[in-house]
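Okay, is this right?
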Amino acid sequence: MRIAFLERVLRALYSATLYLLVPITLYHLIWRGFRQRAYFQRWDERYASYAPAGAPAPVWLHAVSVGEVNAAAPLVDRLRTLRPDLRVVVTTITPTGSERVRKLWGDAVTHVYLPYDLPGAVARFLDQFQPALALIVETELWPNLLFGCRDRGIPTHILNARLSARSLRGYRVLAPLIRRALATVRLVAAQSVDDARRFERLGAAPERTRVTGNLKFDIPPPQTGDFVHAFAAALGQPRPVWIAASTHEDEEAPVLDAHRLLRERHPAALLLWAPRHPERFRAVAQRAREAGFRVASRGTERWPQPETDVFVIDTLGELTSFYACASVAFVGGSLQPIGGHNLLEPAATGTAILSGPQLHNFVDIAQRLREAQAMRVVEDAAALAQALAALFDNVNARETMAANAARLLESGRGALDRTLALIAPVLPAAPTAG
């Protein structure tokens, strides 16, 4: 009884704080909306206000944004093949994640934004879709949502579970509540042994924690041949091409500096630039022009021209295809303490990989890539330019890195089968006729 009472007190304090912060959530949506118009839309879903309920969705999967949606895609596809009778609802938090869901599955799955972790919103969400199984991808620990699933008898599984040492420290302020919420989870399927141990330290039951590997290794190889051919035809003649992907605002100056330094040695070098957030598309194009580069963009010119110095990828869902067009990829979020972004995407396209040192969100993958000599780490713009020049000077080095990455990808496969083996026995029963 004492534990139940303490849980109620902690939940009440947490929920009261969230209700007091509701005006901040509105301000956040408005602030983001001025940078990405999609944040002005579908506010009703953010607070779980829906049209009259339709048919229940027995399987609910949550994937916060694009990376998590891509990781979960093979799993969702296999579940739909295994059990076509099951209706699936997929939730995201970001508009880019939402767009990716719709591009992958259209109306074949139900999709809404995950509501804020307010008790009333959680209750309305669960009432609306009536899931019988909850699948959460990577690291989304919302206490009211987890408790709400437990209270309704909905088994919750955290799949492809990832928890960095920094994130573990960040949960300290809510540790008593998170520990109780995490104890409600039926299964934590972790990417690595270190991730599993950190989840256990946070409150996951050891007997319910498994190491299944990283689902991102099981993403099917991209089919980019036609895209690369069209890119090369537009370019006219072979040029040194590199891509700066998923960059953040504080990395924009180093990217431009690196490109300027690279062109001193390789004057024909072309930079493909894909900022992490859509609100930076126009800003990076303008910064490149102000730096004296001739700029084109995917949204306007469609393809880089022979005279283009910097080509801004201001569309969504095409990053993998453009990775395949480049000889070297710099993956952003790594020169500033963001923690890095998906390193396996360029690996899957045969592109040599460079990254900054800030990789705390992808420690396991980064370590494996470095040990396989499939990635190099650079500290700043000068080091990035030097590494780019060295790789453009040495095609054998690039090909060796790409081959090493391909072998690592192949050896890492199997998480999908291991995850499915754990999920299949707990899938909701098929509806009975009549």
Notes: The CA atoms of residues 347 and 406 lie 7 Å apart. The chain has a mean pLDDT of 93.
